[in-house]
Amino acid sequence: MSEAIDIQDTRTAPVLVWDQLKDLDKQALERWRVDPVANGRSAEERGIDLPMPFGWFAMCYSDELTVGEVKPLYYFEKELVVWRGEDGQPRVLDAYCPHLGAHMGYGGKVDGNNLECPFHSWRWDGEGAAMEIPYSKSIPPNMKKPACERAYPCQEANGFVWAWYHPDNEQPPYEPVVFAEVGHDDWTEYEKYEWIVYGPMQTIAENGADSAHFTYIHGVADNPNYDITFDGHRREAKVHVKMGTPQGTVDGTIAYGVDGSGQPWTRFTGMCETLLVSGVTPIAKDVTHLRFAFTQLKEDRDGPKGGLAKAIIKNICKQLDQDKVVWDRQKYIESPPLCAGDGPINDFRNFFRQFYAGPEWEKYHGGIKRNVRR
Ligand code: FES
Ligand SMILES: [Fe+2]
Fold first, then answer.
1. Chain-centre distance for alpha carbon 313
2. H/E stretch holding 197
3. 306-327 and 26-34 helices cross at what angle (nearest 10)?
């Protein structure tokens, strides 16, 4: 287990990227988090040709999709449509209607549990099969089977709608992780933040294994010596911290983990009970959508630890901002010249490669197939 570190410095120490962020007020910072990068370089110019990983990925928050609502989405370099049927279940399909190609996210509507295309009102179920054509007695036989390019298994957990993406359309070997804190009476409603990062999923996830960057990008006094375990589709780590508060220094623990490639979480205990549920979703090979949703124990958030509760959230978001300055312009180094102190970056990359599949998997693994363990 690691030695205790002082994370107070992450809020106070000047760091090298600070000049990129210091003049942004709250509104400007929120815009900067999601705006395109000025003078950004293409994936090709930055050597980013990593495969699209498979996994459970956040499509939206549950409260952004009411019963009967239809929304267009763009993830996995694909136009998608999500809707919530009258049975309350969310469903996700490739957006283009197999009939004559209308984008069903724009003008489509919900009919029972099915999606009605805006162009000629054909109705599609969640598997992408035609269920009804209002002006025709018969349905072309090949449209009765799943005919949309792809249907995505969908689940709701922790206040998010998750869809399973796999390049070869394989079914999920594990379920999304569920947290009892989310929606519990003793815990606060989510406080939500988002970023569009112009970098690949793998690079963002690698951050937790990159020990040395904590000092230089985040201003942490000592490199946290994370005790990382890799177990099947799950990666977990724990670090003890000392946090400066107006009441003095408090000992605490930060535990974090990632289920699959798209479901990271972080839990703070001992200081002010906080759970961060993240949704990390690939938009394209070099563009990633990050959502951070924080819930905190109400008695901590509303009591004497309230200041610390806010500081924890502010600090985490600030760290993400600092990393984004680098990620947005970073080149991918396939075989980095690592030295002692860099952390288990190669272990991490070997772990993450299990989420690549198909021809892309062959490219990265020399044809030796390994399955994600349950
Ligand atoms: S294009 Fe969708 S019903 Fe015709
Ligand atoms: Fe970081």
1. 17
2. strand 191-197
3. 40
Residues with CB under 6 A from ligand 1: 97, 99-102, 117, 119-120, 122
Q: Pick from 101, 138, 137: which is nearest to 117 by CA?
A: 101
Beta bridge partners of 193: 292
Q: Which helix (H) or strand (E) holds 124?
A: strand 123-124
Atom from ligand 1 closest to the CA of residue 133: 3
Q: pTM of this prediction?
A: 0.90
Tokens representing 330?
Answer: 């970073």
259: left (phi over 0), alpha (psi -120 to 50) or beta: beta
- How far, in Å, CA of 56 to CA of 346, rounded? 24
Shortest-distance Cα residue to atom 3 of ligand 1: 120
Q: Which two structure tokens, joined as six digits, stand for 359?
A: 């021809």
Q: Is 296 helix (H, G, I), strand (E, B) or coil?
A: strand
Question: To test ligand 1's pocket by mutation, which of 103, 122, 149 has the most ligand atoms within 8 angstroms of CB?
Answer: 122
Tell me the pLDDT tens digit for each residue of 56-94: 999 999 999 999 999 999 999 999 999 999 999 999 999
Residue type, 50: L
Q: Which residues contact 20 (CB under 8 A, 6 or more apart)?
A: 325
d(CA 298, CA 273): 9
Residue 60 CA to ligand 2 center (angstroms) comes to 24
Beta bridge partners of 244: 249
Q: Which two tokens stand for residue 337?
A: 């010249």
Q: Print pLDDT tens along the chain (374 aa).
A: 333 444 443 434 456 677 778 788 889 999 999 999 989 999 999 999 999 999 999 999 999 999 999 999 999 999 999 999 999 999 999 999 999 999 999 999 999 999 999 999 999 999 999 999 999 999 999 999 999 999 999 999 999 999 999 999 999 988 998 999 999 999 999 999 999 999 999 999 999 888 888 888 877 666 556 677 877 788 888 877 766 555 566 677 888 888 888 899 999 888 789 999 999 999 999 999 999 999 999 999 998 888 888 888 988 898 899 999 999 999 999 999 999 989 889 988 988 898 998 655 555 544 333 433 32
- Contacts of residue 88, Cβ cutoff 8 Å, sequence gap at least 6: 67
